[in-house]
Amino acid sequence: MRRYMLFIACSFLLLAGCGSQQSSDSNGDPDTTSIKYKEFKKYETDSAVIVANNQFGFDAYQRLESEEEDKNIFISPLSIQQALAMTYNGAAGETKQEMAKALKWTDVKLESLNESNAALLYQLTNADPSVQLSIANSIWKDEGEPFKQPFLDTNKQYYQAKVETLDFDSDEASETMNDWVKENTNGKIKKIVPSQINPLTVMFLINAIHFKGDWQTKFQENKTSTNTFHLADGSTKQHPFMNQEGDYAYTKMNDMQMIRLPYGEEGRFGMVVLLPDKNHSLTELFNSISAENVGKWTDALSEQKGKISIPRFTFEYEKKLNNLLQNMGMEQAFDERANFENLAPVPPDLYISNVKHKSFIEVNEKGTEAAAATSVEATAESAPSYDFTMNVDRPFMFMIQDQKTETVLFLGSVQEPKEE
Fold this sequence. Notes:
By secondary structure, the protein is an alpha/beta fold. It has two domains: 5-20 and 30-213 and 315-361, Antithrombin, subunit I, domain 2 (Antithrombin, Chain I, domain 2), CATH 3.30.497; 221-310 and 390-414, Alpha-1-antitrypsin, domain 1, CATH 2.30.39. The chain has ten helices and 16 strands. Strands 3, 7, 8, 9, 10, 11, 14, 15 and 16 form a nine-stranded mixed beta sheet that branches. A hairpin with a 5-residue loop joins β7 and β8 (236-252). The longest helix has 21 residues, at 47-67. It is globular, with a radius of gyration of 22 Å. The two termini are 43 Å apart.
């Protein structure tokens, strides 16, 4: 019999661009993923939860950047938070206190956390009919192992978690879970559960996020040109840059430029690009990132006429988050001191063995899409008058954010643009 190891997998995907949009029923409602969250319309988001979740994302991001200097990074704070929130419902004692500290939930009541996450599931997946965003949660438990029904019911109620029992000794168990991940990431993440499940593992908690949306104003392919990208070490590389001009939400500060590029008809979702000035490093920007500062910066955005030049880029990211979470103060959850008495009736022997994170992103002229692209060299035209010019030709940071709730869905940085 397998006993008592808990594995948390945070699987997420950002995939935006052309292609089929959300299907609708006869009443014009979004697809079944959004429809099943309609019951969450009664809940309201707690601003303290959103601030806490964003701050956790920024803190985690800063730590990853310090560990993996000069590497491209891409995480989904929302995905990590969803998977750990489900687990948090099973924690007790000092384990729960440490998780709350690491995840910035110290001043947030559990009921408020769950209700706010339920409200976000509804609000985000129904934000813009021209943009696809699906958020899916699941809990997979080994047959014959005891788990407390209130824990499972709570995650079904607030996270719409799919709860399934599998025989972890069978060869089909990992395949079944990975098929679920593949289905809920549109085939872009094919595997997050290992083929051979650890004999001590009794549960997997998995979150998957899939985002797909065209730019509100697409970049014209015939204006894409090969230009110079300046790397942090002083070297350069030639790379395809997308070019556009128009009216944008933009701001210029003493040490950086910031621009917001909206997706879809509503423009509620957008990519915010933060570009340090030439005499400032991306590390300096990382060190100043916080929920409070980002809120101030985005508040400073105002509509201005300008030009934007940004590289096409594609990359994947994978990270085991155990050490990161332990260094943020969540220690007991990963060893024999763990207390998950609200999850199973054998709490002293139940702990988290892995928190694994995988991602993929491709940004091109149409939006962010898995597609082949060709660099087109455009003929220079005489330049009109602009309020600003933003040439993203050096390491930069970006995030995908919901403008209404200010939730940060994805957070990343590009040290070197690549097209894999």
